[in-house]
Design a protein that fits this description.
The complex is a heterodimer of chains A (263) and B (374).
Chain A lengths: L4 E12 L2 E12 L3 E5 L6 H8 L7 E6 L2 E5 L8 H7 L1 E3 L12 H7 L9 H5 L4 H17 L15 H13 L5 E5 L7 H18 L3 E4 L3 H7 L2 E6 L2 E6 L1 H6 L1 H8 L6
Chain B lengths: L3 H29 L5 H25 L7 H16 L2 H7 L12 H9 L1 H31 L4 H19 L5 H4 L5 E2 L7 H19 L2 H11 L1 H6 L4 H27 L1 E2 L6 H14 L4 H18 L7 E2 L2 E2 L8 H16 L19 H9 L1
Helix pairs in contact in B: 1-9, 2-9, 2-12, 2-13, 2-14, 3-6, 3-7, 3-12, 5-6, 6-12, 10-12, 13-14
The chains are: A alpha/beta (263), B mainly alpha (374).
Chain lengths: 263, 374
């Protein structure tokens, strides 16, 4: 059980004011898996994401990455989001957060900044030219792989919605992650686009050997493409397992699927 | 359509040509006009303002940190320059109320002793200017630790407060042996030729240009565009904000030192927040996020206010004599109207976020539309 864990949450509780947004949540993501975190609106999914990425410090519990606790309450380990990203967890956002004044190319290139060895002096005076060149080549390669190279000089926000989603994933990949977190990647997409996105996620997982943890509302995407599913409601884990197990779970049907049956 | 390489070469040639024309112009003016001539004065002051505007643009325009402490850092630079470059023989006279002050050496004189009078003094002045920047940068590093935790308006208020505190502190009688209290500092060396000012400003703008187009410049822009995304992509916010703040303050300090040279005397009283607003105006009118916009606007603004529109205050303008209307203060009223007109027609500033070299485009506009339709 220990060997394959890439991410493990142990009894994570997050209290926001008087609301317990995440309550005693434990989950794990293994190497090579696509794991989905689902639940009705306000169930605490995004809060859980914000705990994993270091935006919030949980009020209780600990989070382990490759079996090392990087967030915990005792002893207190409270990394900033950039430190978490540097460690190897990259994310996308529910509402797309691309850098809007920058080109498609620069959006991806800038995500490579943190791994560069240059300092501000050597970067300004072009003393680290080789490194800059390598970063640019890697960026071009990544854009080519994601079919975005033809748009490289366009403003990121001028792309159609679906491509912006894809660019955001490409930007996350540019940080060389070991785990990818997707926050509602199919939000606002039609069934056709959603299916393409699912295939795209599987393709990324295989090409980059990258386990994926995603929050999603589109049941078809979740059921078709994820290996395991965690269901939370009011911050509490109510079920987990393979898509078919979860679908058959009465608690889940009551809390969630039952409501959206006629969708 | 041009390839990236051809495009860059064309852009480089354009920028180089403009630089050479400006430089040649400055050299010719220096050779033909006396150093007290209004055109020389305008170029010098324009260069000073361009330097400070560019430094402010890095922070407010490229990093998105709304800081209003520029006058404070200019003051630090101006005093540093003056204090360390007044000739030793003059100090007794300048610091007459403080027994000649506590600093008893002059950096330009020191270098004059090594490299000879003319080159050594000039070299020493440059060194002192850099020192002015270093002092301003060091103070920025200290101030930045608490202040940069604040966001938007709160940061503006805090930095504004800092500038006012510095101004008050430098007039404090207890610091008199160093700052000469509320008395003037004077008698320090200045560059006679405006070409020197142009060269310093060109160096500052060039460094700034290289910086904003480097990996760090992109990180700054990422913070400006979306802080949350920047942090999530591994950009250390505290470190990069501090970096931008320190670099901006460094060049504000250099600009302050140049302003001290230009004015001939330094007094803390003149570094009011109005000076920061004047610089902010240049940044906004020139285009937030455009270095060449800031430079262009600085020169045009200084030329208009100090020279071209002078007649509006003194009774005669463009041959029209109307002493009843063209009285003191009318000039600034006209300048304000002009600024409002510019803001109305260029809501993102004259240059927007474009630079001079963007005049050379990759492909004609029509071709681009065709590509998009396809």
């Amino acid at each position: 059980m220990l060997s394959d864990n890439i991410l493990r949450l142990e009894h994570v509780t997050m209290q926001l004011g008087g609301v317990v947004a995440v309550n005693d949540l434990s989950l794990e993501v293994n190497q090579g898996e696509i794991v989905a975190l689902i639940g009705p609106n306000g169930a605490g999914k995004t809060t859980a994401f914000n705990c994993i990425t270091g935006v919030y410090q949980p009020t209780e519990g600990k989070i382990l990455f490759e079996n090392n606790a990087y967030i915990s309450t005792s002893p207190v380990i409270d990394p900033t989001p950039d430190e978490v990203t540097k460690m190897g967890i990259a994310r996308t956002f529910q509402n797309i957060r691309l850098w809007k004044s920058m080109s498609v190319f620069d959006n991806v290139l800038t995500a490579k900044h943190m791994h560069a060895k240059h300092n501000v002096f050597s970067a300004t005076f072009r003393l680290s030219h080789a490194e800059e060149k390598r970063m640019r080549e890697e960026t071009a390669e990544l854009l080519k792989e994601q079919d975005l190279l033809q748009y490289k000089d366009d403003l990121a926000t001028s792309l159609p919605y679906g491509l912006q989603r894809r660019l955001e994933i490409a930007r996350a990949l540019a940080t060389d992650p070991k785990l990818l977190l997707l926050d509602e990647p199919a939000a606002g997409m039609n069934p056709q686009e959603t299916r393409e996105l699912g295939e795209f996620i599987v393709q990324i997982k295989e090409q980059h050997h990258l386990p994926v943890l995603m929050i999603e509302h589109h049941m078809d995407l979740v059921m078709q493409f994820s290996d395991r599913i965690y269901v939370i409601d009011f911050g509490r884990l109510i079920a987990s397992g393979t898509p078919s197990e979860v679908q058959a779970n009465q608690k889940v049907i009551d809390a969630y699927l039952g409501v959206s049956d006629n969708e | 359509m041009l390839t990236d390489k051809q495009l860059r070469r064309k852009q480089f040639i354009l920028v180089l040509a403009v630089c050479l024309v400006v430089l040649a112009g400055a050299i010719i003016l220096d050779a033909t006009l006396p150093s007290y001539h209004i055109i020389i004065k305008v170029i010098k002051k324009g260069a000073v303002y361009a330097t400070v505007a560019v430094s402010m643009n890095l922070l407010n325009g490229f990093t998105g940190l709304f800081s209003l402490g520029q006058a404070g850092f200019m003051l630090l630079g101006a005093y540093t320059y003056a204090i360390f470059s007044i000739p030793v023989a003059q100090r007794a006279g300048v610091y007459m109320y403080y027994d000649g002050g506590i600093v008893q050496f002059s950096i330009p004189e020191f270098f004059a002793g090594i490299f000879g009078e003319s080159f050594g003094t000039g070299f020493g002045m440059i060194v002192t200017l850099i020192l002015a920047g270093v002092i301003a940068g060091l103070i920025a590093l200290l101030i930045g630790l608490p202040v940069l935790r604040l966001k938007s308006d709160y940061l503006a208020i805090a930095t504004l407060g800092f500038a006012e505190i510095v101004r008050a502190l430098f007039q404090w009688a207890k610091l008199g042996p160093l700052t000469n209290g509320s008395n003037l500092l004077r008698a320090y060396p200045d560059f006679k030729h405006c070409t020197a000012y142009i060269l310093i400003t060109a160096a500052v703008v060039a460094i700034m240009f290289l910086l904003v187009n480097s990996s760090y410049g992109r990180a700054f822009k990422a913070i400006r565009d979306d802080e949350v995304a920047a942090e999530a992509m591994g950009i250390n916010l505290a470190k990069h904000k501090r970096l931008s703040f320190v670099i901006s303050s460094f060049f504000a300090g250099v600009g302050g030192g140049m302003l001290a040279m230009y004015m001939g005397t330094v007094q803390a009283l003149s570094f009011k927040s109005a000076m920061t607003y004047e610089i902010l105006l240049l940044v906004v009118i020139g285009g937030i996020g455009s270095l060449t916009g800031s430079v262009f606007t600085s020169f045009v603004y200084v030329a208009a206010v100090e020279w071209l529109l002078r007649g509006l205050d003194s009774g005669k303008f463009l041959g029209i004599s109307a002493p009843g209307i063209f009285k003191n203060g009318f000039r600034m009223a006209i300048v304000s109207i002009l600024i409002m007109v510019v803001v109305l027609f260029f809501s993102k500033g004259i240059f927007g976020d474009k630079e001079l070299h963007d005049l050379v485009k990759k492909q004609p506009k029509k071709a681009k539309e065709v590509k998009k339709n396809a």
